[in-house]
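BUG: 3D viewer hangs when loading the predicted structure for this chain

Environment: internal workstation, default settings.
Expected: structure renders.
Actual: progress bar stalls at 90%.

Input used:
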Amino acid sequence: MEMLKFGSVSVWLGEKSGKYPDGNQVIVQGSSERVAFDTPQVALHIGAPLLEVDRVILGHVHEDHMVALHALPHAQVQVHEADLAAAQSWEGLARHYGYPPDVLESVRQMIVRDFAYHPRPDATAYRDRDTWDLGGGVTIRAHHLPGHTSGHSALVVESEGVAFIGDIDLTGFGPYYGDATSDLALFRRSLQKVRELDARVWVTSHHRGVVTDRQAFVEALDRFAARIDERSERLLAYLRDGPQSLDQLVDRRLLYPPGFDLPYVVCAERRSIQLHLEELIAQGLVRETGDGTYRHGA
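C-alpha cells produced before the viewer hung:
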C-alpha cells in the first residue's frame, strides 16, 4: 500500500490507485485535530493513522466512501447538507439512489456484504465554503460541486494546496450521474468550477489517485468532461436509426458495456439517458412523440 505525503496531508492509495470498488484515503493532521476525508476500502488496512482520527468529512455519500465508518464510532462524521439524510439512514440512502424496491433490496444486500455498510445517524451537516481549523495553521474548506450527487463537494486543504475532488475522478469511464439526486446540468457547471480551485495537488477518490501538475490535471479533466458530449452523440446516433422508446435505449446501453451486470446498472442507465434526453430536447436535437418514443431532430 503506497502512501504519499504533502506536508500535513497523507494519501494512502487503494488498489489500482483506488479503482472502484476501492478508493484513496486522505488524512490531514493538524496540531489539535486529525481528519479523514471519506473511508474507502483501503481505510480498513491503514490502522492507527485512521483509527485515531477525530473527524471524518465525507465529500459525498455513496457506499464505497463509507466503508470504515463502523470502525470509527468515536469520530464526528460530517457531510454536505444535501447528502446528510443519505449518510444518516438506509431510508435516506435509498431515496438518494432512487431505485425501485426490488433493486434497492439487492443493492442493500450488496453494500452490506461488500462495503460493510453502516449508516451514521449521528452525522451532521456542513455547507458550501465552511472551514475547519485543525490547529498549527492547517485549514480545510468545502467547495460544493454537485452533479454526481446533490451534495458532492471538494475538500481543499488550503494550507497545503491539496484538493480532494472526490468522484470528479478523471477516470476513462467519465462522469457518473445515474442516481435520483444526480444532475447533468449541475455536473457540467461543477466541471468548470473545479478548475478554479486554488490547488497544486489534486487527489481523486478513484483511479487517478494524485495529480501534481496543473497541465496534466486540466488535460485529464477535459478528457473526463468530454465523455458527457460523447454520450450525447452516441444517443443521437441511436436515434438516427429510427424512433426508440426509453426502454429500447436502455437496452442499447449508454454507460456500461452489454453484459456488465450489477443490481443498479439498468437504473443508472435509465436515469442517465433521461438526463441526456432532457438536455437534447431543450437543445432542439430530439423530440418526444405521442407514442412514448423519441426521435432525432426537432
